[in-house]
Amino acid sequence: MYGFLENRVLEVEEKHREEIDVLKSEKLHVEDILSKQNGLIREMGQQLNDAMHNNSILQRQQAQLMETVGQLTTLVSQYNR
Q1: Where are the domains of the chain?
Q2: Which ranges carry the Angiopoietin-1/2/4 domain (predicted)?
Q3: In Å, how far are 15, 22, 62, 81 from 65, measured between CA atoms?
């Protein structure tokens, strides 16, 4: 009787060790995925900041261009009088 119970306990312990090993492996996999996602999020954040900066520059250049076109229009209209 004790031999059977001891064997059964050993089997259950072995099964639990295997399950723990699987869970540890899955945990490492999830941590790896999270690490990659965090890196991508940081990269995307930097790209967003760069795009916003470029957009600001383009808006300033557009305003300057509009001002220059307005000045040229004024000059041409004065010349045509």
Answers
A1: 1-81
A2: 4-76
A3: 74, 63, 5, 24
